[in-house]
Automatic annotation (TrEMBL):
It is a multi-pass membrane protein. Keywords: Membrane, Transmembrane, Transmembrane helix, Transport. This is Equilibrative nucleoside transporter 1. One of its GO terms (molecular function) is nucleoside transmembrane transporter activity. Pfam families: Nucleoside_tran. Its main location: membrane. It comes from Caerostris extrusa (Bark spider). Belongs to the SLC29A/ENT transporter (TC 2.A.57) family. One of its GO terms (cellular component) is plasma membrane. The chain crosses the membrane at residues 32-50, 62-84, 122-149, 161-182, 194-210, 230-249, 269-289. It is found in: Membrane. InterPro entries: Eqnu_transpt (IPR002259), MFS_trans_sf (IPR036259).
Length: 290
């Protein structure tokens, strides 16, 4: 439970700042932000595969992961500081500040827009981002790490490399591809309720993945007793998640006035953290139900 709480708060703190800033910039920069999420997952998957192929000791692997994370964290911090000093960032920040200060004389007595007013304009996307990460974290990684290959050939590909390749690397690759597609072929904001409906329909992936060849299990039968079935379900699971996540994070902040884009982006990051928390808690129950 402590790990869940720590991860959720750290994700909201770190991702919230980046999402809030990206939300105040033109839509394409939010696209770069969400693409970075998927690319980070791909790098982690590649690092895991290299560690397994190299037959490294657990202590060496831990040192490699920690060093890699530290290096990327330092690089991120440097570029974040450079972003805050860039002309692009200062232009849009000064633009938002000037828009907030510029008031019509007839509206001087009106109260400033509250977070609740902003939420009422983005609630559809806020719920959507909760459902997206709730579903994703419910089964990934808690359930999928229990899936084993059904192949009778006992090789490195059907053994220790099966999940890193057939699940994690494939998932993150499909996730990145779908995010790139979403930037070029988005769902218009006037159809935002369709976006919400699609995020709700993603809950079907929870029973689908639970009915794959995951072990140990005591209650549910194995329905999809094939590696191909598991791979196909994983690909569609990643494609829908990445596509809808990009739609929500790029369209959501643009539902409010320009001077409130950053606040809307930060709110979406908060609800993203709520989705992570719900998914992490739900995953415990799903493993018990197997």
């Amino acid at each position: 439970m402590q790990i869940i709480i720590l991860k959720c708060f750290s994700y909201v703190a770190l991702r919230g700042g980046g999402t809030g800033i990206a939300g105040s910039l033109p839509k394409k920069y939010m696209g770069y932000n969400v693409n970075g999420m998927a690319l980070g997952g791909m790098l982690a998957s590649i690092a895991q595969i290299l560690s397994l192929v190299g037959n490294t000791k657990p202590a060496d692997s831990a040192f490699f992961y920690f060093t890699t994370a530290t290096v990327f964290l330092c690089i991120t911090f440097v570029f974040f500081r450079l972003t805050l000093r860039s002309e692009l960032y200062n232009f849009y920040m000064s633009k938002q500040t000037s828009m907030k200060r510029k008031k019509d004389p007839s509206t001087d007595d009106k109260k400033p827009v509250s977070n609740w007013e902003i939420f009422k304009q983005i609630w559809v996307y806020a719920l959507s981002i909760v459902f997206i990460f709730w579903v994703s974290l419910s089964v990934l990684p808690a359930v999928v790490v229990l899936v084993v290959s059904t192949s009778t050939e006992h090789t490195i590909w059907t053994g220790r490399l099966f999940l890193p390749l057939a699940c994690f690397l494939l998932f993150n690759t499909a996730d990145l591809v779908s995010r790139l597609v979403a930037i070029r072929i988005p769902i218009p904001s006037k159809f935002k309720h369709i976006t919400l409906l699609l995020t709700i329909l993603r809950f079907i992936f929870i029973p689908l993945l639970m009915l794959c060849n995951a072990h140990p299990r005591s209650h549910l039968p194995v329905v999809f007793n094939s590696d191909v079935d598991f791979i196909v379900i994983t690909v569609f699971f990643a494609l829908t998640g990445g596509y809808l996540c990009t739609i929500v994070l790029t369209q959501g902040p643009k539902q409010v006035k320009e001077e409130h884009h950053e606040a809307a982006g930060s709110q979406l990051a908060l609800f993203l953290g709520i989705g992570l928390m719900l998914g992490s808690v739900t995953s415990y129950g799903l493993v018990v139900l197997l």
